[in-house]
Amino acid sequence: MTLSETMAQLEAAGTEQARKTYARHGAPAPMFGTSFATLKALMKRIDVDHELALALWETGNFDARNLAMKIVDPACMDAAALDRWAREASAALSCGNYAAALPAEGTSGRAKADQWLASADPGLRRAAWVLVAQLALRDEQTPDAYFAALLDGITRTIHTAPNAERGVMNGAMIAIGCRSAELRAAALMAADRVGTVEIDHGDTACETPGARSSIEKTWAHSTAKGFVTPAAHERSRDLPRRRC
């Protein structure tokens, strides 16, 4: 599919109701209001097309960028491109999370997480915690001690972190608790120390998940399915950016 053909299909599938919903969640214009079901159908037709993904990203259109993250080839993304996508992606809905998680699909995941955590750019710091969560669930090479140290950082700073970071820090704590039995115990203790995380979700019905209850429910669900850990369960599934 060409860029013009793809944009035409995205525009034709857009609705006013979706535009209102996306905008309420913080999605920026320009956007068509294309459903994620339509994006997934287009992804199945296109599969992977890195050049088209790059062209879609350059449009700046919210829906086009969501599709770009579904069809991009992370192996063709250099370090600067990963930084740029993570910085420019909207935090609304799943857009920013998909872009932030891309390094986890290659060999630079941990290095990028460390780089972004140390960044003065709030967009990259937010991306770092999304990436940490993805590494916790999918990267089998990084030792548990790495994530245990990050748990300590979360408990010390989550309540004073910017609003945009608190939600993804909470998500990282949950993901770390789903990595192994040892980290489950550590994350539950961290969750108890943290307590309630106050996050302003704006004019939406979104609620902040409790870390302890989320970890326990996820473990119960995954072990009932026959998996040793929720992380093992997650690794058996397609990538979030491709399945959602």
What does this entry look like structurally?
The protein has 244 residues and is mostly helical. The chain has a domain at 107-243. It is built from 15 helices and no strands. Helix 8 runs antiparallel to helix 9 and helix 9 (122-138) runs parallel beside helix 11. The chain starts with a helix and ends with a helix. The mean pLDDT is 95.
List keywords for this structure.
single chain; mainly alpha; 244 residues
Quick structural summary:
With 244 residues, this protein is an all-alpha fold. 66% of the residues lie in helices and 0% in strands. It has a domain at 107-243.
What topology does this entry show?
Elements: H1 3-13, H2 16-24, H3 36-46, H4 50-58, H5 62-71, H6 79-88, H7 95-101, H8 109-117, H9 122-138, H10 144-157, H11 163-177, H12 181-194, H13 211-224, H14 230-235, H15 240-243
SSE-based structural type: mainly alpha
* Global Rg: 18 Å
H/I helix tally:
15
Unreliable residue stretches: none
N/C terminus separation: 21 Å
Shape: globular
Sheet having the most strands = none
Q: What is the string of helix and strand elements?
A: HHHHHHHHHHHHHHH
Strand content: under 5%
